[in-house]
């Protein structure tokens, strides 16, 4: 049998839908041959199984006939009606509807309520003095609740709907009733999320239905029923951008879900002019979708449908078997929407789709041509595995759909499971184009942040070297200095130190801390350190230098502050004169005992211009160790400052026993902070040797 498994109805794919060219044709031909073999094997397997089953039924029939003392002619079998495939699940027959109607209503209303599927009622609008509808009185109802459970309709008769079912108002049903009265025609919706309390129990149902005015009687006929599973499935496919398809290898047909048709670009919406050709389009009311006159009847896919209703989709598709004219709003009969589509296809206004093609397999070749050439070899290998009865899990490929690229993640499963001769192949796919775009954007942002972080690290390293340079040797042989710096866990900060010999022989000693963290704080620290280096060549004392440094900080563009200790050590007298701008006082270690120096402190740098800073004096002696430090050495989250200072003094006792300032500062840092700190920390030490 020469039936290709990728059939074509004579249409050739347009050049723009053939991204692979000759390579694509070669792949399709190879896949055709592979699929043909799989179809032939599947059909042979089914014929064999059917033949075996036929013989078994004949033997069983003869056996039963022999037991009863009769015979059954060969080739004739009988199946009992009670157990047949069309028997009701309930052997007692279909349930009847219980209806209650108030006296005075036309007799046909009860019959209509009994025939309607789902929850049905007849409502009388109750108007206020201003002519507006205030409520609705239940004039008739069947036994089905809005939530789907059964109830006695007599409980509702003659009572306001707001009293018997208050959820009808809050769920938006009243808006639909008002729309029907305003239009004087039927309206429908499939988007009611109904909540209510029934007999003390909270109930919820997702409903679709119609409201029809009975103009002569001044009443409304309502019909509500739960949204069918197929409609929920379509919503899920739409929101998740997923779809499925099943390729029947026995018949060669493919059944597509609506989501898969949209994913592959095979589901084309009606053009705008066709949408309005037959009547008025549906509108909205109160946030609820409303279909105009001629709207589709409620979807009965969840409970059954009329087999005689004309179909508007190709065989095997998952669209409802009853015509739905809600998109066109036509009032010209049930076939008006179908005729409009047919007219559009005939005039070329609307391209053929899977939903409208005569043979649903006719578009398989077109779909295969959508695959990006780079993915063809992988897809070919996957199809070989599927048609050999294996399973494909979580593979990706690129499709060219209507001039755009779509990235698709898909899986395939052959049925029966584990058979090397499958009879059908089930596909599931998801459009991950948007996910891929977001991922690329996230990766791009991550790479940008990585590059920015790398650049910041390079800048931080440059600034760190500028803020904590190697210390020079000094002319007085009895003076040695050492410094240690530890950045915070988050990186560099605003700590800095300055120690150098001035032309007049004095030694400038300073430690500071610019407020803030990161590169910005370090940049300000470099500015402050550089400013002090220039100011140090003046004849000013430490108080004057500190005041002028405060002017520099205050005149900056940013509203920032800083702290500092600025001092001079006179090598002739070993007198240390210093000023503090809100900075921790230095520690003097003499004879192995540490002391926090008493001092007068001035304001932080930058708080106000022309602030004055008193000068403190400390006389150093041979063997003394002078330590200047920043607050990162003593401040700890969750502890007060005194606790940190006490820990520093205890560490000084252990680390200051030698005569080397560098060893002492390194010991203090490793003892107090380790490799990292909550804030950057700096210690500058000066040791006065004997002699």
From TrEMBL:
Pfam families recorded: SpoIIE
Bias type Polar residues, positions: 300-320
UniProt entry tagged with the keyword Coiled coil: yes
Stretches with biased composition (Basic and acidic residues): 9-28
PROSITE patterns reported for this sequence: PPM_2 (PS51746)
PPM-type phosphatase domain ranges (all copies): 480-688
Signal peptide: none
SMART domains cross-referenced by the UniProt entry: PP2C_SIG
This enzyme's EC code(s): 3.1.3.16
Enzyme class: hydrolase
Name assigned to this protein: PP2C family protein-serine/threonine phosphatase
Organism of this sequence: Streptomyces iconiensis
